[in-house]
Amino acid sequence: MSNEAVKSRSGQLFAAAFYVIAGMALSGCGLSDGPSQLIVAPGAYDAYHCNDLVNQWKTLNTREQELSANMTRASQGGGGTVIGALAYGTDYQTVLAQKKMVQQQAAAKNCELVHNFQSDQTIR
Q1: Of residues 74, 69, 75, 78, the one with CA closest to residue 10
Q2: Is position 117 within any domain?
Q3: Could you tell me if residue 4 is left (phi over 0), alpha (psi between -120 and 50 degrees) or otherwise beta?
Q4: What is the mean pLDDT of residues 58-73?
Q5: What's the helix, strand, coil split of the chain in %, to 5?
Q6: What is the pLDDT of residues 13-41, one digit of tens each?
Q7: Which of 31, 46, 80, 123 is deepest in the core (most CB within 10 A)?
Q8: Is residue 114 part of a domain?
Q9: Is the pLDDT of residue 71 over 70?
Q10: If 0-12 CB within 10 Å is exposed, 13-18 middle and 19+ buried, where does residue 22 land?
């Protein structure tokens, strides 16, 4: 392949990725919770008790950190930001939507997702 053909092909791939990402972003226009809210079933956490919500919160936080790290690693290479967004973006948005729903259920049920523990020992 000639150098010009490679440049043309990479330009086409970049343009295609751009339009896919732009389409995904614009598909949520007019939705109050964004397009990712469509991915998570409404009422998915209605039957969860406080302990279940806390465990789900921890799991989602761990998954969010993993996906964020993967997207950061992918963005370090040439064109990696687009590749990272395509590979991990949907999962990342789903996790964020799930976290929002868990927060809403926790608030509705007066659950505390993060426990602030205090030591019963004083510092001397």
Answers
A1: 78
A2: no
A3: alpha
A4: 93
A5: 65, 0, 35
A6: 666 666 556 555 544 443 444 555 556 77
A7: 80
A8: no
A9: yes
A10: exposed
- Which tokens belong to 111? 């659950």
SS3 111: coil
Residues in the chain: 124
Q: Give pLDDT, residue 27.
A: 47
CA-to-CA distance for 123 and 70, rounded, in angstroms?
A: 40
Domain that holds residue 39: 3-108
The CA angle 45-51-57, to the nearest 5 degrees, is 60
Average per-residue pLDDT in the chain? 76
> For residues 82 and 70, what is the distance between their CA atoms, to the nearest angstrom?
12
Q: What is the DSSP letter of 120?
A: S
Looking at the structure of the chain, the number of domains it has is 1
Which tokens is 38 given? Answer: 């469509």
Integer Cα distance of 64 and 74 in angstroms: 15
